[in-house]
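A quick aside before the break. I want you to see a complete sequence-to-structure record at least once, exactly as it would be stored in a machine-readable document. Don't worry about memorizing anything.
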Amino acid sequence: MPETKQRKKLGKERLQRIIDLCESVEERGLDPFVVDVDDIIKVAKEYFPEWEQPEELCLDAEAIHKLSSVIKLQSDWVKHRSSSLYTDPFLLEEKIRRINGDELADIFLNVWNPIVEMEQIGIQSLAQATSYWRSLLPLGERWAKTDFWRRETGAVTREELIKERVLAEKAFSEELETFWEELKEKVGGKGKIRYWDFIGADTYLETVKRAYMTSFLVTYGYATLEIRPLEEEMFIKPFEKPEPLVGKKRVMSVPVSVGVEEWKEWKGSLD
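That is the input. The structure line, written in tokens, reads:
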């Protein structure tokens, strides 16, 4: 009898770990394929005959329910990747590394379609050029009509240079620091903020400028992007202090579209 109780206790613990794993995949946007579906089904089958009490059966049902949610995420992930003809860049890089130089050159030659353009001067072009030169006044007459003005040199203030956009109002590093502080203030204790909620502004021009500054925040290690491809959402998370990424981990360039249509859609969602 004690052995049966011990087995039931072990089974409940394993089911609870399965539930926790599935919930973490759903809530944190982790790769759904970290969950081994076959292994979990084996565990559920192994312990199902042991359950007698309602709470034990409810725990078993909850584990199966959570597993079904993860299976749906896996299905959505496959549909999304197949519909967008997605190829993982790391897999692509690995395939290229395995190809020798001769094979790579043959592939390049087979797909290379150079654009060739031939330009030549025809009779019509020569006639147009001759007509143009004949219509010009002699150099002496053209230069005679050129007027020159003498201006006195003077001083200009820094405020005037800033107004004429010759000088920036503050150094780029200082402006980046200020933008970083704004990001941390908006995030607060939430840890992250939706990308468009941070870069979005009243005007499209200001939105593009904020997206431009955000790209430097990520490049210089002031923040990082969290991308959820299944939900098609992107978040930006600030660091407490700059963390240069180059040399510590593999860095991937992420193209982000900040078009007028995306901006209008974001503005519409706020109304």
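Two observations worth writing down. Residues 54-83 form the longest helix (30 residues). Strands lie at 193-194, 223-228, 233-238. We'll return to this after the break.
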